[in-house]
Amino acid sequence: MTDKSVFTDEEWHALTDAPLLVTTAIFAVGEHGPISMVKEASASARSITHPGERGMANELIGQIVAEANTKETRAEVKEHRGPTPQAAVESVLQELEPAATAMKAKLSADEAAQVGAWLVAIAQAVAASAKTVNPDEQATIDKLAALFDVKTG
């Protein structure tokens, strides 16, 4: 079982930003009314703070959640805007790259897969909180899954 001490400060920062960045990516391509925004925010918070059983990654995910829930971390996640929703998603994916790289370098394959699956599950929960998952949301989930080497389907 891995804990945060194996990561550099920069890697740890990238990992603790990842849950909110994943949410941001889905939010960028979602279709929003005021009610769907509340549903998406609730789904994100629930998925982040209640990751479910993640095997050997439980301890590490718990540490990521504790840090991600701090006010300081939330304040540091920059707003992602682009000329198009897809540009915003690409920006988020670039910001997630250091987290994915750190996971692959510092975690066992199983643990990296479990953390990655949790991050993809957050995206899926946010997308599914609306009535349907739109094609742009599904494409974004697929990109996140590819980034974190998670098999979906």
Can you offer a commentary on this structure?
- The mean pLDDT is 89.
- The protein has 153 residues and is mainly alpha-helical.
- It has helices spanning 9-29, 34-49, 58-68, 71-76, 85-106, 109-128, 135-147.
- Helices cover 71% and strands 0% of the residues.
- It is globular.
- The rounded distance between the terminal residues' Cα atoms is 28 Å
- The beta-strand count equals 0
Shape: globular
Radius of gyration: 14 Å
Question: Percent helix among the residues?
Answer: over 70%
* Multimer state: single chain
What is the string of SSEs from the N terminus onward?
HHHHHHH
- Ranges with pLDDT <50 over ≥5 residues? none
| Discrete helix count | 7
Mean pLDDT across residues: 89
Biggest beta sheet attributes:
none
Structural class label: mainly alpha
User: What percent of residues are in strands?
Assistant: under 5%
What order do the helices and strands come in, and which of them pair?
Elements: H1 9-29, H2 34-49, H3 58-68, H4 71-76, H5 85-106, H6 109-128, H7 135-147
In a nutshell, what does this entry contain?
By secondary structure, the protein is mainly alpha-helical. Helices cover 71% and strands 0% of the residues.
